[in-house]
Amino acid sequence: MFAGTGSDVGKSVIAAAFCRIFRQDDYQPAPFKAQNMALNSYATPEGFEIGRAQAVQAEAAGIPCHTDMNPLLLKPQSDHTSQVVLNGKPIGSKSAYDYWRRGASEIDFRKEVCDAFDRLAARYNPIVMEGAGSISELNLRDTDLVNLPMARHAKADVILVADIDRGGVFASVYGSIALQTPEDRRLIKGIIINKFRGDLRLFDDGRRMLEDVCGVPVLGVVPYYKDIFIDEEDSVALEQKRRQLAQGKVNVAVVLLRHISNYTDFDTLERDPRVNLFYTNNTSDIQQADIIILPGTKSTLDDLMELRRNGCAQAIQRAHREGKMVIGICGGYQMLGQTINDPDGIEGDIPTLPGLGLLPIHTTMTAEKTTQQVTFMFNGQQCQGYEIHQGISDTSEAILQTDHCIGTYIHGFLDNPPVISHLLSACHLCCNTVAAPHLTHADFKEEQYDKLAQHVRQYVDVPRIYEILTDHD
User: Fold this and answer.
1) Which helix (H) or strand (E) covers residue 276, if one does?
2) DSSP letters along 34-60, please?
3) Model confidence over 349-372: pLDDT tens digits?
C-alpha cells in the first residue's frame, strides 16, 4: 500500500509506476483503492463506473479495469453531499456527516470493500494498493475504510509517501507515523519522499535524520518531473493550467466550472504543439479564444446557473455568433441545448433552466446513470470513448453538429486524431508550422507509463521493496 501524509502527495502516480514496474518484472499486478473521492471517473468494459486513477493504474498494469479495483467511489455534488457509487453503480447521495457516522447506513461498506479486495487478490499478484488523503486523521480512524484498516485486512506492507515540495516534510512524516497505533505503526515499512526540486545531494543529511527520528528507512527521493504525462486524479492540478492567450497557436478555452469532472478529456489536445489550451472563467478570454469547450460537470444545472450569473454564458453565445467553434461534452453538451429539466430533483432544487440555445436538444435528468465504453465514426474513421452521465436528451445522435458547434456525451472524444484534425482545420488558422503528434493516444500513454517506471526505478530502491514484500517472518 502506498499511503500518504496528505492529499495530492503523489500516491496515485507512485502506485501507477509500481503497477508498470511489477508488470515489467513479469508479475501480474492490479491496482486497488477501497474508497475514492473524485469527480474524474471512468467506465469499465462491463459498463460500470470507477475512479479514473484506478483505470490509469490498470492501464499501467496492462489489464482491463474492473469495479473490484475501486469498489467505493464518492462523487461530490456540493460542499456537504456526495453521490455514492458502490461496485460501479450509484446507490444515492449522502451527506458527509451521515456517511462517516457509524451505523448510519444499512450497507456494510467495510465488508463490501474487503470482499472486493479478496476477489481481486485471488486473480492478481501483487495488489498495488493506494490509500486516501492522510493516514493520521484520528477523528476518522474508526470509520476509515481505505488506509491502515484496509492494510490490516490485506496484510499489506505500507510505504508512506510525502510531498517535500509543499514544505514541512519532517513534521508530516514523523507525525503521520507517531500518531498510529503500535499495531499500525509496524505495518509502515518505508518512506518515499516525492516531488523533490533541486540537487538531491542536499537532502542526504535530511534522509538520515528522517530515518533516525522515524525508525523507518527512506526508500527513495523522487524528483519532480515535467516531461512525463500521467492523467491527474484531482482538480487541484487545474490551478496550474490557467494560461494566457498565445500568438501563432489555436487558443482553446475550457470553461472552468465549479463542479468540473473528467477534465482529462482535454489532455491530448493540451499536449498538441499546435494548441494553447487553458482553463478560464474570464469572459474576455472566452470571447478571444478560437475554440471554446464546455466540459463535463457533476452538477449541470447549478453550473449552468453560475455561468449565467458570471457572464460566461453570454460570452459563449457572443463568441458563437462571431463564428467561433463551441464544443460541449457530457454536462457541457446538455448546457448547449434548449432546456434542462429536473422534475424529480435528481441534482437539487433547480427544477428547470433554459440552455444556451446552440443545439436543438432538450434534456431531462433521470435517476438512471449511463456508463459504457463506446466506438463511433467520425469523418469516416472509427474512434473510441466512453459515456458517464445522468440525463436523457431527445436525440439519438452520439455526436450532434450544427454550424461551428458540436455536442456529445462521449468522454475521450478529443483523444481521437480525426476529431482533433477536424477541429484545428475548422479554425482556418496557419497551424502547419508545427507537425501533428505522430503517436496514437494509446501508444503515447504506453510510452508515458514506461518513462514513469524508469524515473521511479532510478530514484527508489526497488530491490529493497521486493525484499520487504517477501520478508514476512
Assistant:
1) strand 275-280
2) SEEE-S-EEE-TTS-EEEHHHHHHHHH
3) 999 999 999 999 999 999 899 999
Q: What is the pLDDT of residues 91-126, one digit of tens each?
A: 988 877 677 666 556 789 999 999 999 999 999 999
Between vectors from CA 247 to CA 245 and to CA 249, what angle results, nearest 5°?
90
For residue 243, list its beta bridge partners: none
Q: What are 95's three cell numbers?
A: 451527506
Catalytic residues: 330, 411
Nearest to 417 by CA among 213, 269, 278: 269
* Residue in this structure with the C-alpha cell 469499465, named with its chain if needed: 44
The string of DSSP letters for 357-412 reads SSSS-EEEEEEEEEEEEEEEEETTEEEEEEEEEEEEES---SEEEETTEEEES-BT
Q: Give dist(CA 378, CA 171) in Å, integer.
A: 53
Contact 218, 245 (CB under 8 A): no
pLDDT digits (tens, 9 = 90+) for 402-449: 989 999 999 999 999 999 999 998 776 545 555 667 778 899 999 999
